[in-house]
Amino acid sequence: FLRMFIQDPVFWQISFNTVYFVAGYIVLNLLVSIGLAVWLTSGIRFAGLFRFAFFLPVVAPMVANSVVWRLLFVPDTGLFAAALATIGVEAPNWLGSPNWAMPSVILMSVWAGFGYNMIIFIAGIQAIPASIYEAAEIDGVNAWTRFRHITFPMISPSIFFATVMTLISALKVFEQPYILTGGGPGSSTTTIVFYLYQQGFQNYDLGYASSIAWMLFLVIMFVTAIQF
After folding, report:
1. How confident is the model at residue 75, as a pLDDT?
2. What average pLDDT does the chain have?
3. Residue 117: closest CA among 29, 218, 11
4. What is the pLDDT of residue 109?
5. What is the per-residue pLDDT across 109-151, written as a single tens digit (0 to 9) for each?
6. Mean pLDDT over residues 48-64, rounded?
7. Is pLDDT at 71 greater than 90 in this prediction?
8. Cα 51 from chain centroid?
9. Distance between CA atoms of 225 and 174, rounded to whole angstroms?
């Protein structure tokens, strides 16, 4: 533990990377999933088809999702580079730049994971009595006010559950940086669990890897307790 907190020159950088990923992933995941849940419960046509399409990445293995997105992020011939080229914008080296690598990992992770929370929020919204919305419409309440004063407060148990589970999964992120960037460039996308894997299963320093695992366990327990 002394080595981890004092002697290891990259541990704090890796901890910052993990916090960076967690913050970006949780905020975007919750915003996208809540927004789509509200949209899909507003009476639009083909809502079931959209729900299936948005949930499909959750069912697909994360390894497969990561491999596909790695091809999309190819600087010169990838789909994103081709799309930007049509409007005269040169695409950055998404996975090879220290500035773009982590945002790229976050973007891919949000796409692969928001469907789970979306289904939870849809269930929460559908459990709200329709009479409450009918009373609000009679009083002339607009859509934003209905969401702010009816939907959001009444799905707060769902939001709490989704936040706790999303935070835990974000702190344990491994497959995305492992496949997309290999932790690079440098150590800019190396996360705690990826570093644990490197120490335990590549360097065979199992004692140090165990210390990292215990530290991560205590952090998850502490943050979850604060949320409760």
Report:
1. 87
2. 95
3. 29
4. 97
5. 999 999 999 999 999 999 999 999 999 999 999 999 999 999 9
6. 95
7. yes
8. 18
9. 23
